[in-house]
Amino acid sequence: AFHSRASLDAQAPAPALQRNMVRFDFVELFAGIGGFRLALEAVGGRCVLASEYSQHACAVYRRNWPNDPAHVLVGDVRKLVPAQIPPHDVLVGGFPCQSFSNAGRREGLDDDRGSLFFEVVRLLDGCRPRAFLLENVRGLLKVMGTVKAHLCALGYAVHVREFDAALLVPQRRRRVF
After folding, report:
1. Type and span of the H or E element at 152
2. 29 contacts 91 by C-beta, under 8 angstroms
3. pLDDT in tens, 121-177
4. Among 58, 97, 127, 152, which one carries the catalytic annotation?
5. Is 58 considered catalytic here?
């Protein structure tokens, strides 16, 4: 669903909670309309850069965060240079799922969209944030050995969990984090 900024503000935590939140900076890759951002800002995060390829999603993202400086939302993740990305504590992203989805061709990491996972690896390697959080469909589990191997090779501890958002939405929405 597309939200106006007013509807997003209505979901912000109460001021009393905001005073006690831990502050951290994050980068949001494959940002869409800002789902990760909405969640991370609610727990004290500050977005220093978001990358989104789709111009339609970018237009909604800009409407949702109209006060962002122009440099916060950038385009194609493949064109990002680690040295030009602001320092951040956490990198988040939900790289394209079509390559892993039951509804897709299931070509995994060999597909053009699936191979964007390696852009995440490249940026983690170049930026070295303290932590990362990635999200995708359940079909990603079929290549999780390869995914974990690349992330662990960078020195990160990798923990995988599957969640079903059926508690939040009226359908099964299994996701791997």
Report:
1. helix 144-153
2. yes
3. 999 999 999 999 999 888 888 999 999 999 999 999 999 999 998 888 888 888 999
4. 97
5. no
